[in-house]
TrEMBL record:
Pfam families: EGF_CA (PF07645), GUB_WAK_bind (PF13947). SMART domains: EGF, EGF_CA. One of its GO terms (cellular component) is membrane. This is EGF-like domain-containing protein.
Amino acid sequence: MLTINLLWLLLAPLFFSSTAAATAKQGCEHKCGDLIVRYPFGIGKNCSIGIIGSWFDVNCNTSFNPPKPFLANGNLEIVKISSDELRVKNWVAMKCYTETGDAIRDDGININLTGTPYSLADSNKFTVVGCDDQSLFRGASDRNFYSGCLSFCSEREHFVDGFCTRIGCCQTSIPNGLQDFSYLLGSFYNHTNISSFNPCGYAFLADQDVFKFHESDFSDESFRNRTIENVPIVIDWAIGNQSCSVAKKSTDYACLQNSDCVDSDTGLGGYRCNCSTGYDGNPYLSPGCTDVNECENNPCDENGICTNITGSFNCSCKDGYFGDGTKNGIRCIAHQNTQFPNKDVTEVIQKVAVAYDCKIVEGVLSHQMKQFVIDGNKVVLSVSAPETQVDDTEFEENEVYAIDIVTSTGEGKDQRY
Ligand SMILES: *[C@@H]1O[C@H](CO)[C@@H](O)[C@H](O)[C@H]1NC(C)=O
Ligand SMILES: *[C@@H]1O[C@H](CO)[C@@H](O)[C@H](O)[C@H]1NC(C)=O
Ligand SMILES: *[C@@H]1O[C@H](CO)[C@@H](O)[C@H](O)[C@H]1NC(C)=O
Ligand SMILES: *[C@@H]1O[C@H](CO)[C@@H](O)[C@H](O)[C@H]1NC(C)=O
Ligand SMILES: *[C@@H]1O[C@H](CO)[C@@H](O)[C@H](O)[C@H]1NC(C)=O
Ligand SMILES: *[C@@H]1O[C@H](CO)[C@@H](O)[C@H](O)[C@H]1NC(C)=O
Ligand SMILES: *[C@@H]1O[C@H](CO)[C@@H](O)[C@H](O)[C@H]1NC(C)=O
Ligand SMILES: *[C@@H]1O[C@H](CO)[C@@H](O)[C@H](O)[C@H]1NC(C)=O
Ligand SMILES: *[C@@H]1O[C@H](CO)[C@@H](O)[C@H](O)[C@H]1NC(C)=O
Ligand SMILES: *[C@H]1O[C@@H](CO)[C@H](O)[C@@H](O)[C@@H]1NC(C)=O
């Protein structure tokens, strides 16, 4: 009995996670702690894309609980892997001062990713937090890029909570494609006079949508650790250093069936693969991207019929409806001569009268009109009453009616009788 139960537990993940199959290479682990590792990245021997060395290896260190994923034998801890970027834990420069202005701690940052498939994304903002701090960001490689920002303030300033507004916090843009860069902190007055509420200054890169500045950050001893943990740096990645057009001719071209090649926009060369519209899966893993059944969450009109076709879907309409069947286009419209009885009009007239707090005067009929016939046989009753009965009929195309309605604020009875 126990064996069977265990077997179930072991087999269940294989049966139910069909996406896991497309995530990692066969026989490879696809998770390290909470991180989902999607090929071309991989955990363990021969699990990542091999053609460009071991840059896509994820070192899953199980001596931590939960295990921590690091990039390519380095010390960059990965937070998230997406189809076009990576997020890693932050690098925070920090400089702290005593009351008398002596620097007691000075940690600068120096990163060199030259020769790797990785570079800083321009969605990062270079950020300085402090009230007597300035930092210079230097990006080397084959271009010389310098940028910087300074923040100067006293306790009396009005700090805007949640926003980096140049008061206590400043931010500046960086271009994408930087691989070799450094930053460290400097000060004008060594934090003298402000050390009571702001002993340290900080500089770091931050995904512009994630970092929120708070005044309490100035005196929070755990600010650096919190930022490292919670504010990721966005890293662009690419396969190799060739453009799509060149890579397509090579034997190790990575984009498999039904996928498109997308040139990296970092200026460093390289490309990524993307499933073509109407297909999904992992474009780097055999058999490539597969046809999606778009009809699963009906993309057509509610009275439409969806047909799954290769790479797309078609919409049409059910019997009794016409149109193109699409949700946002012509949709599906009921054929006009189906079920439109005269008593529907009687009901509508009644509803309008009620809305205006009026009564419809009984015994008034609307007649169909024909050529030379004013009062045709088909009629519409303006209000149903026990004394007046008319035949149930249905409206048809091209019929003409003279609508005759009398309303009253009184009883709705003709006083002449
Ligand atoms: C990794 O791949 C190489 C070349 O394909 C092969 O020689 C080697 O045995 C593989 N190693 C493992 C652990 O599968
Ligand atoms: C895992 O991390 C520990 C602690 O930092 C370190 O000593 C060890 O070498 C790491 N193991 C691997 C395989 O990287
Ligand atoms: C970064 O690494 C590249 C290649 O490894 C090297 O040429 C360059 O000088 C390094 N940059 C710095 C600032 O050390
Ligand atoms: C700040 O500290 C540095 C080094 O300790 C010193 O050279 C400089 O004069 C100090 N500046 C001020 C304004 O105290
Ligand atoms: C610090 O405070 C002293 C005394 O109030 C003042 O003389 C000095 O100018 C202040 N320094 C700065 C940098 O604000
Ligand atoms: C920050 O993290 C480091 C390393 O994990 C730890 O040694 C240090 O005590 C932490 N600092 C604070 C203020 O939590
Ligand atoms: C492109 O990558 C290849 C192999 O990784 C390397 O030998 C070559 O120098 C790179 N070319 C450029 C322009 O970086
Ligand atoms: C990949 O394709 C999806 C859907 O077709 C699109 O939204 C996305 O922008 C594409 N990514 C790249 C890097 O081209
Ligand atoms: C899908 O719609 C197109 C355009 O209306 C039509 O040409 C095609 O034959 C349809 N395909 C199927 C499988 O219904
Ligand atoms: C559309 O749906 C997918 C997923 O179920 C199938 O794999 C495809 O074969 C199917 N395409 C066609 C043309 O039927």
